[in-house]
Amino acid sequence: MSYSIVDLEKAVRDFGETVVAPNIVGWERTHKAPREIFQEAAEYGFLGLETPIEMGGSGVSFSDKVKFARQLSHYSMATAFAIINSQNIASRLALSSTLRHREELAPELRDGKLVGCTALTEPHAGSDFAAITTTAKKEPGGWRISGEKAWITNAGNADIILLYAQTDPTKGWRGIASFLVDARKSGFSRGERYDLIGGHVIGAGGFVLDNYFAPNEDLIAMPGDAFKSAMSSINGARTYVAAMCAGMLNDAHKKAVTYGKERQSFGVPILQHQGMKWSLVDVAGKIEILDLLTQKASLQIDNGQDAVLSAAIAKKVAGEETLPGLNACIQAMGANGLKEENGLGHHLACAKIAAYTDGSTEMMNERIAASF
C-alpha cells in the first residue's frame, strides 16, 4: 500500500493498534458508539484527509481515502466507516461559499469537537432515494424542514448533518435539495441508536425534524443539483465500502495463514494440507480482485470520469465474495476463528452491514444492467 502522503500508512497502523484494536471488543459488548474516537482520529489528521492543505487539511486524493478505508478496516470496518462519514462533511464544508461553514464548523469537525453525517435514507425510502418525503418549504429568510430520517451513520453522535429534503413533490428527484442541519438547534429530535450486531461503533440511528428552520445560507445544493451530487457521492461510497471489504478479508486471510503455519495436525502444519491451502488461495484471489476493482473506480473518480459502473461492480463483488471469504478463514482456524479477540466475528458482522450500505447487491445488479 502506497499513499501520496508520507507516514499516513504508519499513522493508520498506530491508530488501529493503539485506539481501535484494544477497545473494539469492549465497544461492541457494551453497545457503544464512542464519541471520543473522533477526537482521537483528529489527532492523527484523519478528519481532514480530503480538506485542501491551505484550509487546514491533508489534501489527499480520493484514492488515498480508499486506501485509508481499506487499511483501517483491518481493525474495524465500523470504526473506519464512522470516521470517514464525519470526514466527508468536514471536507465538504471547507469548500462552502458560506464563511460560517468554512471558518467555524469545518475546523471543529476536523478537530473532532463536532461530528458529522449525511442523511438521505428514510423509514420507507432507501435505494429509492427520489421517494423521500422529508419536506423543505421556502419562507422569508430560509426553509422550514419536517420529516424523519432512518439508518443514518453517526446519527447517535452527529452535530452537523448534510440532509436531503424534497422542496416540490411534483418534481420528483428534481425537487430534492440539500441543507445543513445543526442538531443542537430547536426542531431537531434524535432517536435511539440501533443495536446493530457488530456495528455499534457506526452509531446508526434516526431523527425527526419538526418545523426546523434552516437559514438561506444553509442551503447546500439547489433542487435538482442535490440529487446529482448525492448520486456522485454514492459512487465514491460504494468504492470505499468495497475497499473496506478487501481490508477485512486481507486481515482475516493473514490471521488464517499464520494460524495454519503454527497449528499442527497429523504431524505437519495444517497449512500443508491441500484442502486448507486451496481454500485460502481462493480468498487471496478474492482480495486481489477487490483491490483491482476499487483501484479502477478510484482512479476514475480522481480523474473526474464516470465511475457509476465501476463502483457498482466493485460493490457487487464485495457483497457477494466477502462473507464466503471470511467464512473460509474462520473455518481454516477451526473453533479458534470464533474467538472475539481474533476479530473475525466482528469482520463477519461488518461484512453483512457493508452488503447493505450504499446500495444492496440486488441494487448493484440493477445499476450494472442499466449499462447494457
Supply the key terms.
alpha+beta; four-stranded antiparallel β-sheet; Butyryl-CoA Dehydrogenase, subunit A, domain 3; 372 residues; Butyryl-CoA Dehydrogenase, subunit A, domain 2
Computed CA radius of gyration, to the nearest angstrom: 21 Å
Distance between the termini: 34 Å
Question: Helix/strand-derived class?
Answer: alpha+beta
CATH class of the largest domain: Mainly Alpha
Pattern of helices and strands: HHHHHHEEEEEEEEHEEHHHH
As for the number of domains, it is: 3
Low-confidence stretches: none
CATH architecture of the largest domain, by name, is Up-down Bundle
Give me the number of helical elements.
11
Reported by name, the CATH topology of the largest domain is Butyryl-CoA Dehydrogenase, subunit A, domain 3
Structure write-up:
This protein folds into three domains: 8-114, Butyryl-Coa Dehydrogenase, subunit A, domain 1 (Orthogonal Bundle), CATH 1.10.540; 117-223, Butyryl-CoA Dehydrogenase, subunit A, domain 2 (Beta Barrel), CATH 2.40.110; 226-369, Butyryl-CoA Dehydrogenase, subunit A, domain 3, CATH 1.20.140.10. The protein has 372 residues and is α+β, with helices and mostly antiparallel strands. It has a four-stranded mixed β-sheet. Strands 2-3-7-6 form a four-stranded antiparallel β-sheet, with no helix packed on it. Strands 9-10 form a two-stranded antiparallel sheet. The longest helix is centred in the middle third of the chain and has 38 residues, at 225-262. It has eleven helices and ten strands. It is globular. Helix content is 49%, strand content 16%. The two termini are 34 Å apart. The model has no long low-confidence stretch (mean pLDDT 95). α7 (225-262) packs antiparallel against α8 (274-302), α7 runs antiparallel to α10 and α9 (308-332) packs antiparallel against α10 (344-356).
